Amino acid sequence: MQKNSLLALALVTSLVFFGPAAQATAADTIKIGAYLPMTGAVAAYGEMENAGIEIARSMEPEVLGKKIEVILVDTKSDKIEAANAVTLLVEKEKVVGILGEAISGNTMAGNPISEAAKIPSVSPTATNPLVNQGKQYAFRACFIDPFQGEVAARFALNELKAKTAAVIIDIAQDYCVGLGNFFVKEFVKNGGKIVSTTYIQTGDQDFSAQLSAVQAANPDVIYAPNYYTEDALMAKQARDLGIKAPILTGDGAQADALIEIGGAAVEGMYFTGHFHKDAATTERSKQYIKLYEEKFKKEADAFGALGADAYFLLVDAIKRAASTDGTKIRDALQDTKDFQGVSGIITMGEDGNPIKSMVINKVQDGKFVYVTTVNP
Amino acid sequence: MTGTILFQQLINGISLGSLYGLVAIGYTMVYGILRLINFAHGDLLMFAAYTAIYLIGIFTLPWQISFPLAMVITGLMGIVLDRCAYRPLRDAPRISLLISAIGASFLLENLAIVIIGGIPKGFPRPPMFDHVITILGVRVQVLTLYTPVITIVLLLGLLYIVYRTKVGKAMRAASKDFEATRLMGINLDRVIAITFFLGSFLAAAGGIMWAMKYPQVNPFMGVFPGLKAFIAAVLGGIGNIVGAVIGGFLLGLGEIMIVAFFPEVSQYKDAFAFVILILVLLFRPTGIMGEPMIDKT
Predict the structure, then answer these.
(1) What is the number of other CB atoms lying within 10 angstroms of the CB of residue A265?
(2) What's the rounded Cα separation, in Å, for the pair A153 and B9?
(3) Cβ neighbours of A310 (radius 10 Å)
(4) How far apart, in Å, do the first and last CA atoms of chain B sit?
(5) How remote is the C-alpha of A222 from its chain's centroid?
(6) Smallest CA–CA separation between A82 and chain B, in Å?
């Protein structure tokens, strides 16, 4: 009996030690890892970004004469799972670069691990400034929240003519807390007044108590920079209560699920966003939109476009570095200049944060409609 | 705080509380008989909501038919759950049942992810529940008014079954003593199956009401309402049906009022519920309406 279990132990140990080594010998492909929320609270982002990466890979399937293989790991919209996913990609899959995560909190959990392993990562849509702070190997394809909060505040003051605002923040998300603060700072600096601040949590479904407080404060605009499910449920309950103030939110709103859940209640909702296909200008974006719509039979969305851009940025850096060495790819990524991406022209600034333009969109007739573009 | 807002918050609280109560009844019924916390109970909410969506969407049935049908299907699902996950463990230690319940809960959630996907779906709200009326200067959605009424009607119906019918008598007997009930010639498995049917049927009612009020249907939608309803059941005295509803109302009102009076601590709304759970377990483990604890073996 004991002999048998010893034998089994030996077998398992040998599998652990020799398994990955045997795999690594077949290196005629270049492996890129992607860790995205394919299930859980923000699954829509993962699904859209994965679709974008798929299209991008069909546009550029090879680099340095080798086929690119994308290994996708689901993070279940969870911080711990995100960290595990990066460990898996780095330790077991030995990827040369990483794409992901979609949201700030999860990327903040994953980045320290890829940083320690000196593997460059590009997040498509993690917008919180802390995500890349002090990191050498962390990059992103999107603008960051101080800019987004500023634009939202100025839009509320100048276009919506708001003097007072109510802020509703999802306290469980780094993204929402950060963006809410940047909005408040800019709004107050320019003479606006915050009349109500309330908090919710990811997964909450009843906001009636918070909204009744908002209703009592009677603001000119509601700023709710949260993710699409909470935004939609909140809008629905706000309209049910008879609150008529326009709702302004951030890039997290741009998912079809917002309209599917919110229906008529999200009509007229404004938000700052990364991309709208009607504002696309680059050659690459036109080709991307065509391929995307042929394959998925629906309009190209923002998160897909950013997923594709993260892929293109990484592949472009591998090409310019002419190497799969992490440090060389990292240097090439930092040198990215006037890159013609799907979501616009990207120049990598300080800390791996791109300098790029932003769009303001609106929900109208059950669709996301382009309003205007704001340059940095 | 003005009177109007207080009134508004009161209505918010009653509406949320009656949903908790509706779900809590199912927990408490199963516990009363099997001494089992059925952790898969919350997932039956999700099952019912998806079933209703597909009955309306694919089979294009009107809601008057598809909602009751979804409730019956969920009730049958409860029987299947009992047959597959709990009945084989009837004579096993209670802890095995509990673990089996957690397993069943994960199985249902992950099956939904694999089959349907993780992106939330909207839920159709029939026009009858959709319009808004004004009472004393407060705008109230009619759905908000129907919810407590439906909860009370279902509660009365259930009380009738439990206290006035033969099956109910068998249920009460089973909750007192398994062996003696068997000796009396009662088919225990059948009684338990019926209990699961009723509990799941009520969970389905809760799930559909929940989805109409908070229309985002996803594989994990039942987890939090399930937990809250469990707390409500403990608060009211687990095993006691009327207590479950009272516990639900108290919990819903408490959660809303904490946000209403102390908006700056609104992020601790959920903590409030769990603090109540801990306090009840510490100081009055039998809850508000609970009977003194007699360990049944």
Answers:
(1) 21
(2) 30
(3) 32
(4) 52
(5) 23
(6) 17
Tokens 């759950």 sit at which residue? B81
- The structure tokens listed for A144 are 């960051």
Asked if B81 and B87 touch (Cβ cutoff 8 Å), the reply is: no
Residue of B270 and A244 predicted with greater confidence:
A244
> Which H/E stretch holds residue A56?
helix A43-59
CB contact under 8 A, B120 and A47: no
Q: Are B220 and B46 in contact (CB under 8 A)?
A: yes
| Block residue for tokens 């090879």 | A62
Contacts of B186 (CB under 8 A, 6+ apart): B170, B173, B174
Length of chain A (residues): 376
DSSP lists the bridge partners of residue A188 as: none
Judged by a CB distance cut-off of 8 A, whether residue A44 touches chain B is: yes
Sorted by where each begins, the domain ranges of chain B are 23-221
Is A217 at the interface with chain B, CB within 8 A? no
Full-model pTM? 0.83
Return the residue of A nearest to B254 by Cα. A209
> Counting beta carbons within 10 angstroms of the beta carbon of residue A26, is it exposed (0 to 12), middle (13 to 18) or buried (19 or more)?
exposed
> Strand, coil or helix: what is A163?
coil
Collect the ranges in chain A with pLDDT lower than 50: 1, 3, 11-26
Which residues from B are below 8 Å from A261, CB to CB? 120-122, 215-216
| Smallest CA–CA distance from B257 into chain A, residue | A209
Supply A73's token pair. 């790991």
A171 part of contact set with chain B, CB < 8 Å: yes
Q: What does each C-alpha distance from A318 to A63, A328, A338, B58 come to in angstroms? A: 7, 8, 17, 48
From A52's Cα to the closest Cα of chain B, the distance in A is 17
Name the DSSP letter for residue A131.
G
Q: Return d(Cα B256, Cα B9) in angstroms, integer.
A: 7
Is the pLDDT confidence value at B168 over 70?
Answer: yes
Six token digits for residue B144? 């908000």
> For residue A223, what is the enclosing H or E element?
strand A221-223
Size of interface A-B (CB pairs under 8 A): 110
Distance separating alpha carbons of residues A214 and A222, to the nearest angstrom: 8
- Among residues A145, A209, A214, A135, the alpha carbon closest in space to that of A177 is found at A145
Of A209, A236, A262, the CB nearest to B9: A209
Task: For the beta carbon of residue B290, count every other beta carbon within 10 angstroms.
Answer: 19
**Do residues A61 and A24 touch, judged by C-beta distance below 8 A?**
no
Contact A138, A132 (CB under 8 A): yes
All domains of chain A in start order, with CATH: 10-143+280-356 (3.40.50.2300), 146-273 (3.40.50.2300)
User: How crowded is the C-beta side of B224, counted as CA atoms within 13 Å?
Assistant: 17
Cα distance between residue A188 and residue A175, in whole Å: 20
Rg, Å, chain B Cα set: 19
Q: Quick count: other Cβ atoms within 10 Å of Cβ B15?
A: 23
Contact in structure between B197 and B81 (CB atoms under 8 Å): no
Q: Name the minimum distance, in Å, from the CA of B226 to any CA of chain A.
A: 13
Q: Is B203 exposed, middle or buried (0-12, 13-18, 19+ CB in 10 A)?
A: buried
Q: CA-CA distance, B24 to B29, in Å (whole number)?
A: 9
Tens digit of each residue's pLDDT (9 = 90 or more) over A161-172: 999 999 999 988
CA dist A262 and A245 (Å) reads 16
User: Which residues have a Cβ under 8 Å from the Cβ of A36 and sit 6 or more positions away?
Assistant: A45, A46, A49, A50, A72, A73, A74, A75, A99, A100, A101, A102
Tell me the two tokens of residue A258: 């917002």
The answer on pLDDT for B40 being more than 60 is yes
pLDDT tens digits, B50-69: 999 999 888 888 888 999 99
